[in-house]
Structures
1.
Amino acid sequence: MSTPKIWDDAVSTFGAAAAAKLAGTGQREAAIRAPLDLLISTIGKALGRPAVLHDEVSDFDRRVRPDFGVSIDGVVMGYVEVKAPGVGINPGLI
């Protein structure tokens, strides 16, 4: 099954924007936040479900503050935790 061209273009745009930002100075994790926001919002629009990323949304029930909360139609549908390229997470700490 092939992916729609809009998705391919969105991922290519993300890759180019992330690479350009990562080539500069600054924190590597922060560098990919704006390209990621653009990627998710573009894909959401392509699916007919515009998504909005909200920075540093606190989830008090789980006692976490992920980098983004993703809302669709004003309802938080999920979360995104951003890590710099090459940095993993330790699920044992969650």
2.
Amino acid sequence: MNVRSFAQRFLVPRWGISLYYFLKFHCKVSARAEVELSPFLKIGRRSEIGSFTKIKASFGPLHIGKNCFIGAGCFIAAHQGGVVIGDDCLISPNVTILSSNYNYQRLDVPIGQQGYSSLGVTIGDNVWIGSGVCVLDGSRIGSGVILTPNSVVSGRIPDNAILQGNPAKIIFTRR
């Protein structure tokens, strides 16, 4: 942990971080959330971040659209590929969004020593992500999508689809 990370985590009060993001982006960040002070993080107007949510944007861009709600206990980590969340999205509690994945092709090298890749995650406008959903690296979620609770999402999801399961499958298309 470098000096900047140490100072940010232990010396800057969380209410100070909440005030900083309110003044900079006109959004609400709970004082109980753990949001990094990062030049890679951009939050849209009128967006809200709930308690006990962790947002990590040290290694890549993270853009949260306007009028989004991120529930309690979520974890969003942006790496080189980045994370883009569109406008008017509802993210329920305990959702995980990851934009990196370990390489695991070689059998003679431990997985932790093979490095990682980062394709990024894109979430369209007006998406509702149910509680406990896991969105994996490389996901491209279209606009108007509904993800039912505890689904695991990877790959491309077309607009207006409703998905369920592990792995998530389309069960209905909104018309």
